[in-house]
């Protein structure tokens, strides 16, 4: 029963986030900074849930609760990396919303594509830190 619940949760999360990424890529009207951050957030969420749930599902099927020290360290490192990336991407999205609300006439000059790429790369590097 737990296997089915965790597997369905994993599949719904991965397929939902892939659907968001595909919608943002395929629709030209969604090529805006907020949706760029949203697609990167979806990718980080896929990686975040993929760092924990597959091992959990395998352990449920194998009736095993054993994990090596290196495996645990690797799993926790990836989990922390992608959780920090999520937080930093949400911060970038909040900055985007702040600029669009408080400075709507200067939005296009402040939030440009170079800044969006810089913020995404900054979230990756801060997650690695």
UniProtKB/TrEMBL annotation:
Q: Which InterPro entries match?
A: GPCR_Rhodpsn, GPCR_Rhodpsn_7TM, Olfact_rcpt
Keyword terms, alphabetized: G-protein coupled receptor, Membrane, Receptor, Transducer, Transmembrane, Transmembrane helix
Q: Which residues cross the membrane?
A: 6-25, 37-58, 111-128
Bilayer topology term: Multi-pass membrane protein
Concerning PROSITE patterns, the annotation shows: G_PROTEIN_RECEP_F1_2
Give all residue intervals belonging to the G-protein coupled receptors family 1 profile domain: 16-129
Q: Name one GO molecular function term.
A: olfactory receptor activity
Query: Cross-referenced Pfam families, in alphabetical order?
Result: 7tm_4
One GO CC annotation: membrane
Query: By its UniProt entry, which Gene3D superfamilies does this protein fall under?
Result: Rhodopsin 7-helix transmembrane proteins
Which cellular compartments is it found in?
A: Membrane
State the signal peptide span. none
Domain of life here? Answer: Eukaryota
* Record protein name field: Olfactory receptor 7E24
Q: Which organism is it from?
A: Heterocephalus glaber
């Amino acid at each position: 029963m737990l296997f089915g619940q965790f597997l369905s949760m994993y599949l719904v999360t991965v397929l939902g986030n892939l659907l968001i990424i595909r919608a943002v890529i395929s629709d030209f009207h969604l090529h805006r900074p907020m949706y760029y951050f949203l697609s990167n957030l979806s990718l980080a969420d896929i990686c975040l849930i993929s760092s924990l749930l597959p091992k959990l599902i395998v352990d449920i099927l194998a009736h095993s609760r054993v994990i090596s020290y290196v495996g645990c360290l690797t799993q926790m490192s990836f989990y922390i990396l992608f959780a920090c990336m999520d937080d930093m991407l949400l911060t970038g999205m909040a900055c985007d919303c702040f600029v669009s609300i408080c400075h709507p006439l200067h939005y296009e000059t402040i939030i440009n594509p170079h800044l969006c790429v810089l913020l995404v790369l900054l979230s990756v590097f801060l997650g690695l830190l």
